[in-house]
Design a protein that fits this description.
Elements (H helix, E strand, L loop, with lengths): L1 E3 L2 E3 L26 E12 L6 E12 L2 H9 L5 E3 L6 E3 L11 E9 L5 E8 L1 H7 L3 H26 L4 E8 L33 H10 L5
Parallel strand pairs: 8-9
Antiparallel strand pairs: 1-2, 3-4, 5-6, 7-8
Helix pairs in contact: 1-3, 2-3, 3-4
Length: 223
C-alpha cells in the first residue's frame, strides 16, 4: 500500500513486482502481456569530465512496460539528455558510453517468471557496429571488449533496479565481438545461447562472479 498526500492507494505499485501478482493484476493476465506507463530507473556507463573515471549512473525514463527489463533496455542502449550547466540556453549532452563508437543493438529472445517469482530473461546484444568503429588493432579490440562488459553490467544492474537482488536471472548472448586473443582482462562469454537446463551458459545474477569481474575491470573504484 502506498500513501501519497495523505491518501492510500492499494494498487499504485509497479505492476512488475512479484507482490502484485496476487493483487493488482488479474489472475488470468500474465505480467508480460500487460502494459502500463511508469517512471523507472535504468543504468548506463558514463565518463567523468575531470577524472575520466568510467562510472555507472541511474537515470529515469517514462517507460511503457510490456516485458519489464526489455522496456528499460530502450534507455540503456539509446542516447541520454544530460543538462549542461552554464550555457546561455538550455543545452543537453549524451553521456551514455553504450551509444558511442557505433552503438549496440539488442534483441529479445525469451522471458518468463518461475513459480517462486524469479524473473528470467534471455537476450542477445550485437557489437558489430562497435567492432567496425574501433578497428582490429589490439587497442581497438580492447575497447570493444570493454564496451561489451559495460553493456552486460548495465543490463544486469538495470534488472536489479527492477526486481531486486536474487529475484532475476539474465542470459546474454554476445554477437560480433573481435578476437580476444592477446588482450588484458577476462574474456567476454560469447557462447551460443542455450536453455538453462543444459548448463552450457550460466545466467547473470547480482552475485555472478563474472559480473563482478567485469565491474572491477571496467568501472573505476573512484566512482
Amino acid at each position: 500500500m502506498l500513501v501519497r498526500n495523505g491518501k492510500t492507494n492499494t494498487c499504485k505499485r509497479w505492476w512488475y513486482q512479484a507482490t502484485l501478482l496476487s493483487g493488482c493484476i488479474a489472475a488470468n493476465v500474465l505480467p508480460a502481456q500487460a502494459t502500463t506507463d511508469e517512471y523507472a530507473r535504468f543504468v548506463i556507463p558514463y565518463e567523468r569530465l575531470q577524472s575520466e573515471f568510467v562510472c555507472l549512473d541511474e537515470q529515469t525514463m517514462n517507460a511503457t512496460f510490456g516485458i519489464p527489463l526489455f522496456s528499460l533496455l530502450v534507455g540503456v542502449f539509446n542516447p541520454t539528455m544530460t543538462l549542461i550547466g552554464g550555457a546561455p540556453s538550455l543545452t543537453y549532452d549524451n553521456i551514455n558510453l553504450l551509444t558511442m563508437d557505433g552503438g549496440i543493438t539488442h534483441q529479445y529472445i525469451f522471458d518468463s517468471v518461475t513459480p517462486s517469482n524469479t524473473w528470467e530473461y534471455k537476450l542477445s546484444i550485437d557489437l558489430a557496429a562497435v567492432d567496425s568503429s574501433n578497428g582490429n588493432s589490439a587497442a581497438g579490440r580492447q575497447k570493444t571488449i570493454n564496451k561489451a562488459k559495460l553493456a552486460i553490467v548495465s543490463i544486469v544492474k538495470t534488472a536489479e533496479t527492477l526486481h531486486g537482488a536474487g529475484n532475476f536471472r539474465v542470459w546474454i548472448k554476445v554477437d560480433n565481438l573481435p578476437s580476444q586473443s592477446g588482450l588484458t582482462g577476462s574474456p567476454v562469454l560469447t557462447m551460443p545461447l542455450t536453455t538453462p537446463s543444459t548448463g552450457a551458459m550460466w545466467p547473470y545474477t547480482s552475485t555472478s562472479p563474472a559480473l563482478q569481474t567485469y565491474i572491477n575491470e571496467t568501472v573505476s573504484s573512484g566512482c
